[in-house]
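New to this. Look over this protein:
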Amino acid sequence: MANLHESKDFLSFCLERADELSRRDWLASLTLLTVRRRFSTSDPMFQLYSQRLLRDADTMFEESVHLLLHRFGVLLYAPAVWQLLPLVVARLPLMTPKQLSISAWSLGRTLVNGDEVWIALGDAFRRRVPDFQLRDLAMLAWSFAAVDRAMPAEVVALKQAVRKDLLGQGTDGVSSHDLCMLFRSVAKLTPQDRRFLEWLLLLMMEGIATKTMAFTAQGISSIWGTLALQRWKLSEEVREALCEEVRSLRLDHTFNQDMAVEIAEALVTLEIDDPRPDYQIADFVARKGLSLRADTLLALAEFLCVRGVTHEKAWKRIGVRAQQRAVDLQIPDIDRLIAVFKRAGKGNNRVFGMLNLFMLLREDSAKYGAS
């Protein structure tokens, strides 16, 4: 099964041998699908595969429905998650805290917001709050935030459990990933609770200062993005710690264009003028600029222009990529990109010619429709 690299061949194999596959085989197949070539959940063959798998879910996955939910959550395939809800509701009272948080994460990731399952999930959580570890609480908070479920009883119970888990413990052994998830999720669920958010932020700053926490690119961008959404007035100590932590981004292979945009927009919103994060954004564009999407291309170009960044390689990458992908932008956004190149003094006849051509194509498409 693992040797079939094309998704259609892989799905065909699974369907032909469906009666022979065990629970473990089905779970493995769902995991392997994430790395099959040309795989899409809109593929009719995948939908047949999913229907065949779910036909026996009540018996085959009665005690491990959380694992099945997780695999479909990774694939972002909501129809299967909706179909599993009756089994999930029936099993929730018997799930461990870890299983419950995994189930909640899957529901949140696929944006499945059925009232019955979330009420049952909240009740199961509140009955077993003391048994939840910090990682489980972080996943649960993220899940609540994903579907905008800010029920007071559940949120209060979650915050109390987090405080009980962390108070007096220090930062040794605490995962930065869990704290970042909690910080972002609680900021969305109860943005007015600045006291709780300040406490979480101080814990993360302590972890940075004592070097007891290693922050990933996702964690760093999450902190910046949350602070921007809160319009936080940063103290000098917090600003210095975050700007210094940003310097590690170029060494993190997981740092991507969405994270770069989130940090760039946060720097502008928070009025942070520091060369350290500016350089990391410019360096990312210089290295990865030829793979930018049209929307992130525009956002990063505007940031570099506003900050007066003159990194030649970064601007060259933006110019080349604009000629390749700016056609995906709408007319007002193409106009903005032209204005960016003019203000920065980084455009040339070729760049402006292609952008004007894209404008004409968009105008023709608006008048006469796509051919």
User: Anything to note?
Assistant: The chain has a mean pLDDT of 94. The first helix runs from residue 7 to 16.
